Every structure is written in structure tokens, then in C-alpha cells.
Amino acid sequence: MTRASRRAFVAGNPAVYEFTVGDVPHALVNVGEAGVWDGAKSVADVQKIVETNRRFWGGLPYPRYLFLNVLGSGGGGLEHKTSTVMLASRWATRTREGYLRWLGLVSHEYLHAWNVKLLRPIELGPFDYDNENYTTGLWVSEGFTDYYADVMLARAGLATPAELLDALGRQIADLQNTPGRLEHPLSMSSYDAWIKAYRPDENSPNTTISYYTKGAVVAFLLDAEVRSATRGARSLDDVMRLAYARYSGARGFTAEQFRQAASEVAGRDLSAWFARAADSTDELDYAPALDWFGLRFRPAADAARPATGWLGATTRTDGGRTLVTQVRRGTPAHDAGLNVDDEILAIDDLRIRPGELDTRLRQYRAGQNVTVLVARRERLLRIDLTLGTEPSASWRLEVHPEATAEQKARLDAWLGRG
Ligand SMILES: [Zn+2]
Asked: Whole-prediction pTM value?
């Protein structure tokens, strides 16, 4: 969901692929295929996404739907009531990674036809595109949509279970590597979207958390919570359908009403659960969800091969200079006092040329001490630090090798293979 002009025109000679699902006409309109994009494969897969959502929601809420897919070098999408406009790489159908990303975009924007365009926080309606509006509910609108975008791909058979777990693990790693999760509760990151998420700066990861990312992770944990509370009889799917039946259209839901619907489906008061997950900065508890589905975080890589050195600063190359763009709390760079806009010149007195930083760091091991030479506003500084271990690797999800038959059956139910 982004601010954008209210009218869009697509002119030119696009490739149009029409299909019907449940008698409702749809079309995928690819602008700029240029002999590179695989139109036939993409439309077959978009149709599967539509069919999976139709089964999930029990129908289609529009008379006709258009997927406008503008190919070039961009990325992103905007949802409308009966269409979506997407910007994607022309080369996306050529690699598994690129194609999965595109399918995820389709799945996300299309799901908004229900979650956002029809089922939305009460503060957002009637939609007013000219003024800022404040709501604590965007983590349901965007985060849950992100979660289901990936789940739907798995249920449609377009992503493997391992690919779904990989996508979810990335979201968890992203959350757990963002220090702002300990500063800014999820519901407030939604409320403050106009002053934080839409106006990011180099310190944002230290002060706030994305309601897309944490919202998706919380959706996963809530799904497991409802399943376990009902011994697998019900799930977050039922919560979404109940909320949709009760609050869609002009009604909208308050934060309290959404939580109440979840408690009803779970048959148990979840208000304390929501207070922790959405309104506090406490760490999320992954154990119940891992236990329910028989999953685990992949153990740290080969202990015999120590990890390569990790600085923990984000950089960009600008006019031949390596400039620090972000320093997250809890990283070696932050602990040693590296600053945004520092220019990294050398490590251990050996010059770092533009683009060389990552390669150079791979020559070191975690735990090694180095001296980083930086230029800070024309002054040269030597900063001593101890390289760390890149933490994201430890949040990769996988099926537990000792998962029981019962856990495997729950995983199948989640993936729609029951
Ligand atoms: Zn969205």
C-alpha cells in the first residue's frame, strides 16, 4: 500500500492473457515482454493463485480482475479493488529466485482484494487518499498479507514447503536482526507509519520495526497458536474468514474486534497473547509454533569451519568511496563506534578499493581483531574492533529431522496437503 495517483493508464501493445475462474473473467496484461518474459507460464501460475484464494475465501468478490504487469527494471505493486498494477523485472521468469519473488508480489497484491480493499481497519475507511490517516492495524493489513502471500504459493503448489520455510525464515531473520524491534511495538510502528515507515532514515533499523515483517511473523505465530488451542481443528484461516464475514465492506474492524474474532475462533482469550506480540517490545516466542509444526532453526554452520568475519555495517559505493549507510545496534561496527557517512579506507592498513569490502572481510575469521581506517568529515581515524559472525544464518527454518508423524500431519494441514 503506497501513496500514488488515483488514475493509471497503460498504453502500448501489451500481451494480454485472459482466463476465467468460477465464471469470473481475469486477465494478466504483460507490458514489455520483449521476448524475454515467459507469458504462458506466468498466466498459468497466476490462475493457480486465483483458484487457491477462491477456495480459501469461498468466492471471488469482484466481477472482473486485471493483473497489470509492467516489465522493466522496477519492483513493487499497488492494489486496487478489481486490479493490481505491478512493476517487475523483465528477467524474473528466467531464474527460480526472481520468479518466486514475482509470484510473491502477485500473491500479495491479489490478496489485498480481500485483506485491505474489503477487510480493513476501521480508521482507513472510507478511503481518503488526500490525508494522512492513523491506524494501529497495518500489521494485519500488510503483515498478514505478506504471510498469506507465501502460504498461498505453497498451497497452490507454486512454492515447495522448503521454499515457504525459507521465506518465513528470512522474515524472522530480518526481524531478529533489527534492533528497533526492542524499541517500537508492532501496533505503534503501524500508527507511526506516516512519520517513520514512509520517512526512513539511516537510523530507522535502530528505532523502529517494519509492520510488514513483524506482522508476517506474528501471523505465523498466531496461526500456530489458534491451531494448537483447537488441537488443529481451526486456524488463522478461520480467523480471517470470520473477520471478513463480520467486518468487510464499509464496516471495518477495530483492533479490539479483530483480536476478539481470533479469541472466538481459538476458543480462548488471546488478549494477553496479542498484548505481548503487538503492543510490547518483548521478544517473540517461537517455541510453541516450532513445536506445533515440528520445525527448528537450522543449527549453526559447520563448527569445524569458523564463520568469516562480519562487520555489521551497511555500505554503498559513491564516486569511488566506500561510505557507511547504516550501523545497527549490537554489531561490531556499532560497538566500536563506526558512524553513518564514515568512509572506509583500509583494514589493517591495506587499502579497500570500491566494491572490495565484502571480499576483504571474507579473508578474516569471526573473532579476529582488525583496525579499520576511516575518514570522518576529512579527519582520519583508526577504529579497532573485533569482527563478529553474520547472525542471519541462524534463523533459517527447516523441518525438524525428528518431527513426529503428528507434527508432519500438522505441517501438511498448514500447507494444504491434508
Ligand atoms: Zn501490501
From this structure: 0.87
